[in-house]
Amino acid sequence: QVQLVESGGGLVQAGGSLRLSCAASGSIFTYNMAWYRQAPGKQRELVADITSGGMTNYGDSVKGRFTISRDNTKNTVYLQMNSLKPEDTAVYYCHAKYSIYWGQGTHVTVSS
């Protein structure tokens, strides 16, 4: 069983930056990991994912602004978010892909 705990969300002005962290209670070395987000009234969408080998993939709306990374020695996945826009406002979730493991979410609010 793996528990995922997100942190780092908050309120930021447009153009600002935040760094989200997802700490796992167990080893995530073999998992592909992902960040998803869900805005009010919208479906959950993929923000970015990273394979166990470090290959990354991004949603079109965040390409060039967000960076996903992982530190397997710390069992932690990160999401560096730069040039934030009001439309990035959402609850951000960490997920171990192809598993049942999701975090509880962290709120990100970007003011204009």
Verbal overview:
The protein has a six-stranded mixed beta sheet with strand order 2-10-9-4-5-6, with no helix packed on it. The mean pLDDT is 96. By secondary structure, it is mainly β. The protein contains no helices and ten strands. It has strands spanning 4-7, 10-13, 18-24, 33-38, 45-50, 56-58, 66-71, 76-81, 90-96, 106-111.
Main features:
globular; 0% helix; 10 strands; mainly beta; 6-stranded mixed sheet; 49% strand; 112 residues; 4-stranded antiparallel sheet
> What is the radius of gyration?
13 Å
**What is the molecular shape?**
globular
Helix content: under 10%
Mean pLDDT: 96
- In terms of structural class, how would the helical and strand content be classed? mainly beta
Biggest sheet record:
6 strands, mixed
Query: Would you report the number of β strands?
Result: 10
Measured by DSSP, the beta-strand proportion falls in over 45%
Report the order of strands and helices. EEEEEEEEEE
Strand order of the largest sheet: 2-10-9-4-5-6
Summarize the structure.
The protein has 112 residues and is mostly beta strands. The chain has strands spanning 4-7, 10-13, 18-24, 33-38, 45-50, 56-58, 66-71, 76-81, 90-96, 106-111. The strands form two sheets. Strands 2-10-9-4-5-6 form a six-stranded mixed β-sheet, with no helix packed on it. Strands 1-3-8-7 form a four-stranded antiparallel β-sheet, with no helix packed on it.
